[in-house]
């Protein structure tokens, strides 16, 4: 529950393709996490009976592994434009992206900060995306030799265990941060409802992704908030 | 407790295969008929239900003479066992005798040990529960640990009629191996003691008549580097990182409660701070 008041004007931020891809990605990631947890640490061995024994856990892990591969294609097919913009933004880095991080640390710990003008994805989201892409490649790429060890040379299978472990370790550390920011951290919380409904409060979008918002205003897609009212308090 | 090893002198072996029979018999392992191997050898290699295979090698020595080499093959019981290192369930473990055993109650059949054994010894056996559902467990030679606990020797050793196999304290057996090596050096110039360092030494130590590769053994077996990177670095660092991120976020949460009570994120001038 956000303490911040918004005027109620909503704008469309995420396409249906993105919303579905994101949901499939998130749910399969967690299902994979849960089904592998008893293998990762014996603290969670009690999960085996819940998951139908080691065999049940293994089967579920493989079913969700397939699901985990699909989001890229869901987004690409349903919203190729959005997908391409994502790709383009990930390789575009400017000075303001670095400034973002100094302000972000202040915001994270609840100190006063100012917004650094960002495009559709802010620098933090870009870092998150890049790490998730790399770790997904590591995890998926190593998953195949682990699943079908007979089809690969032994050394490949042996190093696949390492890659799977490193990929997962990095991914979960980043995911914990990603979820904290969306679900718990108050300033970015509208992003959480946004990634489910596709819509976010206009003022929030303008504050957090100013450049993108202004572009959309120019295109006539979004209301020009500065014209309507002077300034929103604490928006 | 003193460390015990099985000492195998392949030059005394006459290829009778009684050790194979004794192993199947004591450990209640089902018969596994295999295709003709092209020689007297019955099975290509050890499997989950055949823990002990006598290999027959037709070898041409440097003088062009044919030599028929026998080797009792089973688990090496490494001192630094890769299977123990990679097992995620602590099912693979060291016994009081220094040998390596599988705890079937803990084993989940993941096969990590199968993929990491430098000698290709560990395999998965498939079983069916009472509902007909299949499950797998890692299986291999146990060095008859159940016999050792009762003060007996491994079944293969007990049955060996040429004394090609002996079981005793590490010190005593290694001494025997050295002595035997000096005896056979004239006949077998390539003879050597196979007790590889890369796995911390083994608890099945051989006196081989020829180089290890002649017997299909790795010359310098070791715990795979990948297993070391994975278990000694990647996994502990991964767990630490997850802990560190979580702690940072708990810090962020608390700090937000302390410094940002009004729930306002940024400066009062709001929109004005964008540029």
UniProtKB/TrEMBL annotation, chain A:
Tell me where the transmembrane regions lie: 20-39, 59-78, 127-147, 159-181
Q: Does the keyword Nucleotide-binding apply?
A: no
Is rRNA processing included in the keywords of this UniProt record?
no
Q: How does it sit in the membrane?
A: Multi-pass membrane protein
Q: Where is the Cytochrome b561 bacterial/Ni-hydrogenase domain?
A: 13-187
Q: Which domain of life is it from?
A: Bacteria
Q: What is this protein called?
A: Cytochrome b/b6 domain-containing protein
Where is the organism placed in the taxonomic lineage, from the top? Bacteria, Bacillati, Bacillota, Bacilli, Bacillales
UniProtKB/TrEMBL annotation, chain B:
Q: Which Pfam families match?
A: Fer4_11
Boundaries of every 4Fe-4S ferredoxin-type domain copy: 4-34, 66-97, 98-127
Indicate the principal place this protein occupies in or around the cell. Answer: other
Kindly list the places in or outside the cell where this protein is found, as annotated in its UniProt entry.
Cell envelope
| Transmembrane spans | none
Q: Which UniProt keywords apply?
A: 4Fe-4S, Iron, Iron-sulfur, Metal-binding, Repeat
Segment forming the signal sequence = none
**Xref: InterPro entries:** 4Fe4S_Fe-S-bd (IPR017896), 4Fe4S_Fe_S_CS (IPR017900), FDH_Electron_Transfer_Unit (IPR051555), Formate_DH_Fe-S_su (IPR014603)
Q: Tell me the superkingdom of the source.
A: Bacteria
The record ties this protein, via PANTHER family, to: FORMATE DEHYDROGENASE, NITRATE-INDUCIBLE, IRON-SULFUR SUBUNIT
| Name of this chain's protein | 4Fe-4S dicluster domain-containing protein
Species this chain originates from: Mesobacillus jeotgali
